[in-house]
Amino acid sequence: MPKKSRHSARIVAVQSLYDLDFNGKLESTKSSVLFDGRGDSETESLDDELKIYASYLLNGTLEHLEEIDLVISEYSKNRPIDKIDIVDRNILRIGIFELLYDKSTHPSVIIDECVKLSLSLSNDVSYKFINGILDNFRRDQNDSAQR
């Protein structure tokens, strides 16, 4: 899948998670093929490969949400997860999911993509927070894998 399509799929997945989170449906939705917050015609206009990758990210994140949120809580020592901006929280969720479960994408690419998502979807300083959390998690993963 082209890099641009993966980036677009990540945007769709973050937007869907945002919608579920904002509307209090995150915990009750364990699997979603639909992209919440999008109309049927908007969803149908998306490229098939983009929909497949966005579904993979969305469903995988929802399936492992409890584990992912524990990781975010562990690495966000000064800001409880419920106090993290909703966009940032869902960018982090996608990033942690990919770092844990997508071994086909290099961790640096995942972190870079999340920083780009933050720059385009969040405020001007959030990218530093997101980069720090994901980079520290990646570093600890590498350290434990080398032992």
Q: Any idea what the shape is? A: globular
CATH class: Mainly Alpha
Mean pLDDT value: 88
Number of strands: 0
Order of helices and strands: HHHHHHH
Radius of gyration: 15 Å
Straight-line N-to-C gap? 33 Å
Catalogue the unreliable spans. Answer: none
Structural class: mainly alpha
CATH architecture, by name, is Orthogonal Bundle
Count of alpha and pi helical runs: 7
Quick recap:
This protein has 147 residues and is mostly helical. It has helices at 3-22, 40-44, 48-63, 65-75, 86-101, 107-121, 126-146. It has one domain (3-146): NusB-like (N-utilizing Substance Protein B Homolog, Chain A, Orthogonal Bundle).
Describe this structure in words.
This protein has helices at residues 3-22, 40-44, 48-63, 65-75, 86-101, 107-121, 126-146. With 147 residues, it is mainly alpha-helical. The protein has a single domain (3-146), classed as N-utilizing Substance Protein B Homolog, Chain A, CATH 1.10.940. It is globular.
Would you spell out the secondary-structure blueprint of this structure?
Layout: H1 3-22, H2 40-44, H3 48-63, H4 65-75, H5 86-101, H6 107-121, H7 126-146
Which key phrases capture this entry?
N-utilizing Substance Protein B Homolog, Chain A; mainly alpha; 147 residues; 7 helices
